[in-house]
Amino acid sequence: MAKTWNSSSDAAFSLRSVLLQETVAGLAPVPGGVYLDATFGGGGHSRALLEASAPDGTVLGLDRDAEAIRHGEALAEGAKGRLILFKSPMSRLTACLG
């Protein structure tokens, strides 16, 4: 089931998480795990991974779109260090993680 994410600060920024439940089920997150959302977008997959890996799992969110990262900052603040955002294309993934 797809969900729509709308930022409270900008209702025009809206993205749809596709295959959310299937992705989380396939990854089978566990507490303390580290997960990568290489297409952060609206943060729907990251949010679900944070919930499923609570209380201490970590999600690395990557997106080349500055607006997506800006909107994700509120989620990162609420995650209290468990969500780390990178403004970068996937082709620079190794540099972000290094």
Compose a concise summary of this entry.
This protein is α/β, with parallel strands linked by helices. It is built from four helices and five strands; from the N terminus they run E-E-H-E-H-E-H-E-H.
Explain what the structure shows:
This protein is α/β, with parallel strands linked by helices and 98 residues long. The chain has four helices and five strands; from the N terminus they run E-E-H-E-H-E-H-E-H. The chain has helices at residues 20-27, 44-52, 66-78, 93-97, and strands spanning 3-6, 14-17, 34-37, 58-63, 83-87. The strands form two sheets. It has a three-stranded parallel beta sheet with strand order 3-4-5, covered by helices on one side. Strands 1-2 form a two-stranded antiparallel ribbon. Helix 3 links the parallel strand 4 and strand 5. Helix 1 runs parallel beside helix 2. The longest helix has 13 residues, at 66-78. Residues 1-9 have low confidence and may be disordered.
Name a few traits of the molecule.
23% strand; alpha/beta; 98 residues; 4 helices; three-stranded parallel sheet; two-stranded antiparallel ribbon
Q: Report mean pLDDT, rounded to a whole number.
A: 89
CA radius of gyration is 13 Å
Structural class: alpha/beta
Query: What count of helical segments does DSSP give?
Result: 4
Shape: globular
Write down how many β-strands occur, each being a DSSP E stretch of 2 or more residues: 5
How would you sum up the major sheet? 3 strands, parallel
Strand content: 15-25%
| Low-pLDDT segments, ≥5 res | 1-9
